[in-house]
Amino acid sequence: MEEQARTAAESALLADELRDAFPFLDLEERVEGFRLLPPAEAESLFFSLSTREQCELLLALLPAERQLWMRQLAPDDAADVIQGTDEGRRDGLLRLLDEPTRREVNALLAYAEDEAGGLMSPRYVRLRAEMSVDEAISYLRRAARERVETIYYIYVLDAEQRLLGVVSFRELFAAPPEKTVRDVMHTEVVSVPEDMDQEKVANVIAENDLMAVPVLDAEGRIKGIVTVDDIVDVVREEATEDIQKIGGTQALDAPYLEVGVLEMVRKRAIWLTVLFVGQLLTATAMAYFEDEIARAVVLALFIPLVISSGGNSGSQASTLVIRAMAMEEVRLRDWARVLRREVAAGLLLGVLLGVIGLLRVVLWPGRVSAFGEHFFLIGLTVAVSLVWIVLWGAVAGAMLPFLLRRLGFDPASASAPFVSTLVDVTGLVIYFSVATALLTGTLL
Predict the structure, then answer these.
(1) Residue of 136, 78, 150, 141 lying closest to 107 (CA atoms)
(2) Per-residue pLDDT, 354
(3) pLDDT tens for residues 34-55?
(4) CA-to-CA distance for 427 and 388, rounded, in angstroms?
(5) If you ran DSSP here, which 8-state letter would residue 139 be given?
(6) Element (DSSP H or E) covering residue 358
(7) Rounded to whole angstroms, how far apart are CA atoms 182 and 189?
(8) Angle at 328 between CA 323 and CA 333, to 5 degrees
(9) Percent helix, strand, coil in the chain (nearest 5)?
């Protein structure tokens, strides 16, 4: 007995360690650790993974292992995994399923991924209105042993699978056994059409405080149910995407710490570059009055450009880190990893904008008349300042949420205006420090 208890404790410890380390392991390490788990622990870990992680793990397993785990998935989860793979590998995964499940999954794949039909599970408990309560309870006992999605709500259908009503598990057990299902069912049923957008389905479930909602076709036939656990995933996905977009970056397709630095730069560089190019118009407008301004004041032309670029970089970094904290993808102990990533991303973004800024000055028609004979030094000042200011903005925006969390405040306080204000003030110091170092003896 002691040996069995010690083995169980070691297995639980191994499973907990693997679950905590899973996001930070490469694919080969994930597979190796997964194979070391006892069956029960492996099953628990597998079902706790996201669809993308399940897909990656399945494709890395041997064919026999892949079939075993594919057959563990509910039809809606199997459909999600298949949709997450390349077109060329989908048929292979489908063939791993048994024939009844394959038919269910194929039916689900006919719907768009973000529609009610794409979210629903075809496995639900159904009853006939003419059944007695006693017969219904006996049937539910058998159904509970099968792989149904939920038995909290039982749907009453006619012979053509049209929805007549709904009854809860609790109401059935509380009803007299001689009553029929028709006597205890509710005929006013909240339902959604099969083509309803997933965000609207989430609103229906939230507004009506439901654990599941039936999905109907145009003729009123029930096709499946969407459960609250599916909607939780939808809400998180949509909220993440919206917040990332509000922060001025494209939505990430993976947890923050699992996105490569170059991919991070690609996601963030587009809007940052667009905002920067738009700010060039400010410098152009101010250059029109350059003849009326003292010679050294030419540096003032680029203050809005370089400072706002740092604020934009800081806003992007704070948005991504705050959301990663909210999703528990990043914890306080990860601050050093985040700092390294933001230093790399901020440096690359700064170089990108710095090059554009330098080209803006040295290639501009009439550059000598606009910026003077030292136009190259002015362009170099702008470029070097941008590298440091954008880098500082990224670091400040990423580290402020950690500082606020450490002090017990809400990291959301590190909002875009707060980060922009901080970077604006310190950015001026950086800008004029670089100008002093490069232009002393010429313009200064």
Answers:
(1) 78
(2) 92
(3) 888 888 888 888 888 878 888 8
(4) 9
(5) H
(6) helix 335-362
(7) 14
(8) 105
(9) 70, 10, 25
Q: How many residues does the chain have?
A: 444
Q: Are 94 and 78 in contact (CB under 8 A)?
A: no
Strands 212-216 and 192-193 turn out to be parallel
> Tokens for 418?
């707060």
| Torsion over CA: 79, 85, 87, 91 (sign) | negative
Kindly report whether the global pTM for this prediction surpasses the value 0.85. Answer: no
148: closest CA among 133, 127, 131?
A: 127
Please give the Cα distance from 200 to 13 (Å, whole number): 41
User: In the sheet where 153-157 sits, what is the strand order?
Assistant: 126-128, 153-157, 163-168
The vertex-411 CA angle with 407 and 406, nearest 5°, equals: 25
194 CB-side CA count, 13 A: 19
Closest CA to 94 of 121, 119, 66: 66
Instruction: Give dist(CA 54, CA 73) in Å, integer.
Output: 10
What does the pLDDT average to over 370-381?
76
Quick check: 293 and 285 in contact, CB under 8 A?
A: no
Amino acid at the residue 59: L
Residue 385, CA distances (Å) to 153, 324, 354, 371 in order? 63, 29, 8, 17
pLDDT score for 414? 55
Tell me the per-residue pLDDT of 330-353, one tens digit each, with 9 for 90 and over.
888 899 999 999 999 999 999 999
- CA–CA distance, 385 with 392 (Å, rounded to integer): 10
